[in-house]
Known about the structure:
Layout: E1 16-23, H1 27-42, E2 52-58, H2 67-76, E3 80-86, H3 99-108, E4 113-119, H4 122-134, E5 142-145
Parallel strand pairs: 1-2, 1-4, 2-3, 4-5
Amino acid sequence: GDVYYPTPIDQTEEPHSxxxxxxxxxxxxxxxxxxxxxSMCESESRDSPARVAMLYSAASSEELxxxxxxxxxxxxxxxxxxxxxxxxxGADRTGRIAEQDVSDKLSELQPGRTVSYICGPPNFIKDMMxxxxxxxxxxxxxxxxxxY
Length: 148
């Protein structure tokens, strides 16, 4: 796909944070960005994100692939956080990622610029794009992967 991090626009002196929004198997490209951000932070790169947050939604707990890798990072790095959402039926159902969830994460990532990456089913991407714009994120800072 055409989504990658960091882009030339991210390689500035302006500090920034990352918000990654994953729906289902859309976690795949976002995990690469997550791991790249981690590597940048560990090496203290001047272009490193200040903070990184992920909201990850899947139909079942079993479909939250890579959760162990994500949790390992959040346990080891205080500037990385993750929230999980289960949308399918069952005792572990939490529901979809809601406006309040995204708003709370954006607040945690302040102050400064936040760059968001979205990947998942087409309706998930569309809904998250609308939501991010509604919450005031600049269009240039909303990036997404359409692979369907």
